[in-house]
Amino acid sequence: MARKRGNGEGSITKRKDGRWMARYTVHTAKGPKRRHVYGKTRKEAADKLAKVLSDRIEGIDYDDENMTVREYLDAWLKGTVRGSVRRSTYDRDANLIRNHLSPVLGRIKLKKLSAAHVQHFYRDRLDSGLSASTVHKMHAILHKALARAVVWHMVPRNVAEAVEPPRPAPKEMRPLSPAEARRLLDAAGGERFEALYVLAVTTGMRQGELLALKWSDLDLEDPENATVSVGRTLTRIGGRVALGEPKTKKSRRSIRLTPRAAGALKAHLERQLREIEVLGDRYQDQGLLFATDTGGPINPSNLRKRSLAPLLRKARLPHIRFHDLRHTCATLLLTQGTHPKFVQELLGHATIAITLDTYSHVMPSMGDQTARAMHHALLPVEDAIT
Coil, strand or helix: which one is 320? Predict the structure, then answer.
């Protein structure tokens, strides 16, 4: 007895014109839809049916003949991106798709999207006033989405690969010199967030990592061996700040603290306990090291405007980004001859290549050192001894 086909498995029949037709079901945004493929022989139709059913097993179950770029990007976001990246990354990508990619490219059928469409889109976005960095982010999103469409056999090639995206200008790095770093920390002495700036300069932690620290992340028992564990970051979700996963796996790390940092943290704890005692029930304690007056997470933008900017003026220093304190930490260590591998681990870079690429221009020239090392390596033994 022939097995009854399951829903959507397809069927093959012979048409009056002599061709064989295989029918199957796809699911679209408007509900299930019947599709069909044809063959001169039953085997040809069966082979084509087997191919589309195989694609469906791999997760490709779309009406890709008529699917628009907007429909595909929405399906890709919800089916592939969501849950595989940090929520803040998902929100950023979704906003760029909703506000830029879909309004301009969305009506084009996915199979009809060309490199010329994409190149014109980039030019249009730049002319509208968007930065090259923002347009480059859109290119990265579109390239990744189309690469998945190629894997799913929905398009024959990734047209974004044939397009030259705008190159974002590198953000200017402005690390503080040793003398400037001392002035900053001296000016922060006695301030509410003194410990925050001491940690920023001496550990190179990212702003989000600092603002997500909890007292349970600290071990201050022995000031000479005090440590802080980095395991989360402050991120923005739906317009609100919240605690989230760190940037990369390497971002999870344990950092040895300097005695100055340990001392500043102990003083900060005493100050925070006094604030809690004064506020009583109005203080919603979440265990955060650095919190608002009522115990909640600090908005990074507010920190930069209300704390960092006045502190720089007080120290008579030029305007810098908070991230430049991280650069300050790295450059201070590298110019003192600290091995880049140790700096990579301190900063939580995913690879040492990132550290070297970022700070190669501030590292001492290795030319003379390598020449001297080779010279001594090849000296006769008696000369090397003397």
Answer: coil
The letter for the amino acid at 270 is E
Regarding whether 27 and 119 lie in a shared domain, the answer is no
Q: Given this model, what pLDDT does residue 30 score?
A: 57
For the chain, how are helix, strand and coil distributed in percent, rounded to 5? 55, 10, 35
273 within a domain of the structure (yes/no): yes
Do 301 and 332 lie in one domain? The reply is yes
Name beta bridge partners: 235. 242
CA angle 101, 107, 108 (to 5 degrees): 90
Q: Find, among 338, 329, 346, 327, the residue nearest to 254 by Cα.
A: 346
Q: Alpha-carbon dihedral of residues 334, 338, 343, 344, nearest 10 degrees?
A: 100
Please check whether residues 231 and 332 belong to one and the same domain: yes
378 located within any domain: no
Same domain, 254 and 286: yes
Q: Is residue 212 part of a domain?
A: yes
Between the two ends of the chain, the Cα-to-Cα distance in Å is: 96
SS3 319: coil
pTM of the model: 0.68
* Claim to verify: residue 156 and residue 192 sit in the same structural domain: no
Q: What are phi and psi of 178, to 5 degrees?
A: -55, -45
Mean pLDDT of 46-70: 68
CATH number at residue 325: 1.10.443.10
* CA 118 – CA 163 distance, rounded (Å): 7
Using an 8 Å Cβ cutoff, are 198 and 263 in contact? no
Q: With the CA atoms of 249, 254, 256 and 262 taken in that order, what torsion angle do they form, in degrees rounded to the nearest 10?
A: 120
Residue 15: give the domain boundaries: 11-57
Q: Is residue 238 domain-shared with residue 308, that is, in the same domain?
A: yes
Question: Bridge-partner residues for 254, per DSSP?
Answer: 229
Q: Lowest-confidence range among 28-37, 96-105, 178-187, 282-291?
A: 28-37
| 213 and 269 housed in the same domain | yes
∠ CA 324-327-329 to the nearest 5 degrees?
Answer: 115
Q: How confident is the model at residue 62, as a pLDDT?
A: 52
Contact 164, 119 (CB under 8 A): yes
